[in-house]
Design brief:
Elements: E1 4-15, E2 19-31, E3 36-40, H1 47-54, E4 62-67, E5 70-71, H2 75-79, E6 81-84, H3 96-106, H4 111-124, H5 140-152, E7 158-162, H6 170-185, E8 189-194, H7 197-203, E9 206-211, E10 214-220, H8 221-227, E11 229-237, E12 248-252, E13 256-262, H9 266-275, E14 279-287, H10 290-302
Parallel strand pairs: 3-8, 3-9, 6-7, 7-8
Antiparallel strand pairs: 1-2, 1-4, 4-5, 9-10, 11-13, 11-14, 12-13
Helix pairs in contact: 3-4, 4-5
The chain binds adenosine-5'-triphosphate.
Adenosine-5'-triphosphate (ATP) binds next to strand 1, strand 2 and helix 1.
Length: 303
């Protein structure tokens, strides 16, 4: 059984002012148990609409979705899922600890479970120092971290996170990425939306790109990265010079020659270097990052 199963989901918003907005069109997508899935798309692509539908906060115009085998919108489904909304807003007269106690009560946790889980998530999200301060005095990044803390509190199987890295400084982003990696190690499923490819590159198993409400592609991140190898940087010692068609050569200090070798010329160049007695000290791929892939897919999707 998949952790998340979305079948032919569509959502049309109807407003007096704007008329009809087809925010989501025939989305079909599955996320396996234990998988980290990045849902990547530009602003207005339909990411939050998908996530709100998964959380039962809006009803689809057509199609169905299940999480952990339970139809979305069913309370049993909500029990199995940790949800971080796009712009978390809490009862800000409460302290962080009081708010987490309230969330724990909603999930029917015992006082012992609540105390242990609250301490744990406050520690993980580095909020212990602020735990007894009212949320109204929290910075944007602290509110975002509290949002993730409340999503983790009941130790769910599945996480649905709407832009979990948004509003965080580099330290906060690193913290959240580490938490997502840890969740994966524990066998949890994470589905998160983002428009930042670097976030996908380091934590996701697969990525789906959505543009204008339509899913464009779904790919394994490691395959995209492997396909994105455009050439290699090769460093050698023991040669004062080297020339080869298509190969750029730079002389570095310490008797090192650095070669930029196109992907298709690597074997031939290594053979030539070997036959001239060079010692190869480094071979590193030059990758096209996910950003270029994303921009290409978005450009195609907007046509
Ligand atoms: N309540 C609503 N009423 C009318 N249109 C809406 C509503 N909510 C979203 N939309 C429209 O639906 C489309 C998809 O919006 P959605 O918020 O799902 O995109 P998103 O990918 O999450 O964008 P972002 O990255 O900017 O958060 C947009 O055109 C948006 O303007």
């Amino acid at each position: 059984m998949n952790a998340i199963d979305i079948r032919n989901l569509s959502k049309t918003y109807r407003t007096r002012k704007w008329g009809r907005v087809d925010a989501l069109q025939d989305l079909t997508l599955s996320v396996g148990k234990g998988e980290v899935f990045g849902f990547l798309g530009p602003n207005g692509a339909g990411k939050s609409t998908t996530i709100k539908t998964l959380m039962g906060l809006i009803s689809p115009s057509a199609g169905t979705a299940q999480m952990a085998g339970v139809p979305v919108g069913d309370a049993r489904c909500r029990m199995k899922v940790g949800y971080l909304p796009e712009n978390p807003a809490f009862y800000d007269f409460l302290t962080a600890r009081e708010y987490l106690r309230f969330v724990a009560a909603m999930f029917g946790m015992s006082p012992q479970e609540t105390q242990a889980a609250t301490g744990k998530v406050l520690g993980l999200l580095e909020l212990e120092g602020a735990a007894d301060r009212p949320i109204r005095g929290f910075s944007k990044g602290m509110v975002q971290r509290l949002g993730l803390a409340q999503a983790m509190l009941h130790d769910p199987e599945i996480y649905v996170l709407d832009e979990p890295m948004s509003g965080l400084d580099p330290l906060g982003r690193a913290l959240v990425k580490n938490i997502i990696r840890d969740l994966k190690q524990q066998g949890k499923t994470v589905f998160f939306s983002t428009h930042i490819t670097a976030d996908v590159e380091v934590v996701c198993d697969r990525v789906g790109v959505i543009v204008k409400g339509k899913l464009q592609t779904v790919n394994a991140v490691h395959e995209l990265l492997a396909a994105g190898v455009v050439g290699y940087q090769v460093q050698v010692t023991g040669l004062s010079d080297f020339s080869g068609e298509g190969v750029e050569v730079t002389v570095r200090g310490g008797g090192i020659l650095e070669l930029q070798v196109p992907r298709e010329l690597l074997s031939l160049t290594l053979e030539k270097l070997g036959s001239r007695g060079a010692e190869i000290t480094l071979i590193e791929p030059n990758r096209q990052d996910l950003e270029s892939f994303f921009l290409e897919v978005v450009a195609q999707g907007k046509k």
